[in-house]
Design brief:
Number of helices: 14
Strand content: 5-15%
CATH superfamily of the largest domain: Aconitase, domain 3
Order of helices and strands: HHEEHEHEHHEEHEHEEHEHEHHEEHEH
Bound molecules: FE3-S4 cluster
Largest sheet: 5 strands, parallel
Length: 383
């Protein structure tokens, strides 16, 4: 692989052991993927931040890297952790708490912005063609498909290494020639956030890791597109979809010979339920936008009678305190920097969620979970 003089210095250890280790990771992965060179990135986003996800080996690696003096060279953000660090919800053991704090400290020492969110684009929105190295699958799909930025779906350590070097290998979705849809999927009329999420779930099942070209009866809002993409990245491995009317045309190539597949209305409805007796209602996977908070606040009339969680980025929480206060007065717990999937959830058995991604992962963990329409959670919650 061709390396610039500066990249060679990083690899030979002239910038210190931490940078050297990070550069070795980037070069190794790049060589495995057949990359000919590295490119500069403007933003790295690390996934695998919850102690519940990375455990002792992950903590040890981060601490060692920080002790070797590794520092982020570009803007770098991190995914949610295993509890809301302000309210300690859900409750965790003392050991889990302390280990999670050590992980956050290591990221802080390395100069990361400890944003604790899977929607870093609500804090700083990348521009079309901007190069990123992001590790959170839902954010990767959103960056490529909605914003038109370029990122592969990086593993946690690669995203950390990219932050420290400011570099990523030029392969996969970093190359425009690989950003070409491979099949066309037509969706029926969809009317709710959860319906877009369910459609994304079906898209993931069909497309796997291919790039689908998705057509709509009605163009989704950006937060509906977010729900769709997060689900397709979970049930399949979709890192990019071309969304008709949304994906910036300059960021992909067209394909005239695509197989056409139609998803029928009943395939969406089969995934969605009308639930009554649940222990927990959850919205906020991926973390909510301001528009979602406003929608939720308007649609919930009265005090909720069930445990109701919403997940948000801590910085967004600060920015929209008046809406949050209203939601909290209604009995909704607005949690910062966490979600039920990365938290060690114990006390709930039956969970209703608007997110097909949460549905996918909690079901795999053995929970009884159903998808419910966002427009209906309000009435279910107050009954
Ligand atoms: Fe975010 Fe947790 Fe969903 S990290 S995308 S809210 S599973």
């Amino acid at each position: 692989m061709y390396l610039t003089k500066d990249e060679e210095h990083m690899l030979s250890g002239e910038y210190g052991e931490g940078v050297q280790e990070a550069m070795r990771i980037i070069v190794k992965v790049g060589e495995l993927l057949g990359a000919e060179k590295l490119v500069n990135i403007s933003h790295a986003h690390a996934s695998g931040v919850s102690y519940g996800t990375i455990g002792e080996p992950g903590l040890h690696w981060l601490k060692t890297l920080a002790s070797k003096g590794a520092k982020a060279r570009v803007y770098a953000t991190v995914n949610p952790i295993g509890f809301d660090p302000f309210k300690i919800i859900p409750p965790v053991s003392k050991e889990f708490y302390l280990k999670q704090m050590e992980i956050m400290k290591s990221f802080e020492e390395m100069g990361f912005d400890v944003t604790l969110t899977c929607t870093p684009y609500y804090l700083r929105e990348p521009k079309p063609l901007e190069r990123l190295a992001w590790g959170e699958s839902s954010a990767v799909a959103y960056a490529n498909s909605v914003l038109g930025a370029f990122t592969n779906r990086e593993g946690g350590p690669v995203a950390v290494a990219a932050a420290i070097t400011g570099k990523i290998y030029e392969a996969g979705l970093q190359l425009k020639e690989n950003r070409r849809p491979e099949l066309m999927i037509r969706l029926p009329q969809l009317n709710d956030y959860a319906e877009y999420a369910a459609a994304g779930f079906r898209i993931g099942e069909i497309a796997g890791t291919k790039i689908p070209y998705v057509t709509f009866e009605k163009t989704p809002s950006h937060w509906e597109a977010k729900a769709l993409l997060a689900a397709s990245a979970a049930s399949g491995g979709v890192a990019m979809a071309v969304l008709e009317g949304i994906t910036p045309p300059s960021t992909y190539l067209m394909n005239d010979k695509m197989e056409k597949i139609e998803i029928e209305r009943k395939e969406i409805d089969e995934l969605i339920d009308n639930i009554e007796d649940v222990d927990l209602i959850y919205h906020g996977c991926p973390h909510v936008s301001i528009e979602e908070l406003i929608f939720l606040n308007k649609s919930i009339k009265g005090k909720v009678k069930k445990e109701f969680w919403v997940s948000v980025a801590p910085k967004l929480y600060e920015a929209v305190r008046p809406i949050i206060r209203e939601l909290e007065k209604k009995g909704i717990k607005v949690l910062r920097g966490t979600c039920p999937v990365v938290a060690p959830l114990k006390e709930f058995k039956k969970i209703a969620t608007t997110s097909a991604k949460t549905y996918f992962y909690l079901k795999r963990k053995g929970f009884d979970v159903t998808i419910v329409r966002l427009s209906e959670v309000g009435s279910v919650a107050v009954r």
